[in-house]
């Protein structure tokens, strides 16, 4: 102790200042490196080295998480890694341009659709409604140019030109129904004209589709037009309150074209059946489409959770459940909610009205904020109708990410939550909407630790520079006490 005291008494304030500056500099470098490593790889370098190299030396065993369940049929780990994380899908319940989106813009002065979203729709229309044989029919040639037009008035003008050339041009009626009609009634009238023309053209294409590859392409195009028109007519009936008629049209469409399941017509059917409160029929549809061999969606996962919650939500009380424990039915409902939240964690904030809704875009990103907006916009009323369902959701949904602490790295029932959804959602949703980026990944402990260490040593360096004698006395006192 005497030796240490003599040694410390010979040190000057410059030494302490140099020591604190050096330690601050080193801890700052460690902090910068930790932050860079976390931003690039999503993990703490110090924690990773500790777990991978130091823990086995002291006899620790790492508990590896269970492998996530398969997301779709025949999906292996390799295919899951190679699968595009941020594929954009056509919104099955997208609104009508003229009758709904334009009316919103007239009232609020805000543009509900982004250029990126409308550009995707233009590409869809060209893929659905055009083919190589359009040059054989002048009206189709005009419509092929119409779908490429950026100006809505130019598209509408081209549709009327096509009707002048051929009064049975189905795609011209489709464009007018989508963009010129200012009410759902007007849109339905145009779609009925499109259906009459589309069925006639479809029958002609069926009779000669085997003659050449060009005729096969024409049949595919005419099939797309017919399916699109029937689906939109069913949606018109749903919006005008003719729910049973809409359900019948959707069921008939699914039976007539069973191979077009990728259009997700069953999601339109689920929403209409929920409006009828036909919960047994909803369960039957879910039994067919909520299968491990089919891609999931927020509509599938949250509708399944709603049905499970319906069985227990009316009598559910968090205080009572904490005392007696959860019953089997309550456990099933909570697990269904966790499953739904793991698939899309943005939905609960809209259902619980913690976040304001906007008009859903024409395209959605699976598991993204855009899908959450689209789901909640149409299904919030169904959750409110079932007493206690929102209360059960409120009490249980946040527990999902206590079960999965790092959703960007791990998955329980689905592959880990994609990290690229925020960028894609910002392109799909309007600028006045605050995009949800939940779940945000928490910073590792060592980033906080190194930041605190750097700040503390920098503060000591500053105090040593300003009050050298006092800091020397303080350092000697600390060393003697220790």
From TrEMBL:
Q: Does the keyword Magnesium apply?
A: no
The principal location of this protein is: membrane
Please, which domain of life does this record's source organism belong to?
Answer: Eukaryota
Keywords carried by this UniProt record: Membrane, Transmembrane, Transmembrane helix
**Cellular compartment(s):** Membrane
* Gene3D superfamilies xref list: Tetratricopeptide repeat domain
| UniProt topology in membrane | Multi-pass membrane protein
The cross-references to CDD domains, in alphabetical order and at most eight, read: ST7
* Alphabetical list of Pfam families matching this protein: ST7
Membrane-traversing stretches: 15-36, 445-464
Mind telling me which GO cellular component terms the entry cites?
A: membrane
Tell me the InterPro entries matching this sequence.
ST7 (IPR007311), TPR-like_helical_dom_sf (IPR011990)
Which family is it part of? Belongs to the ST7 family.
Designated name of the protein: Suppressor of tumorigenicity 7 protein-like
Say which species the protein is native to.
Answer: Ibidorhyncha struthersii
- Gene that encodes the chain: St7l
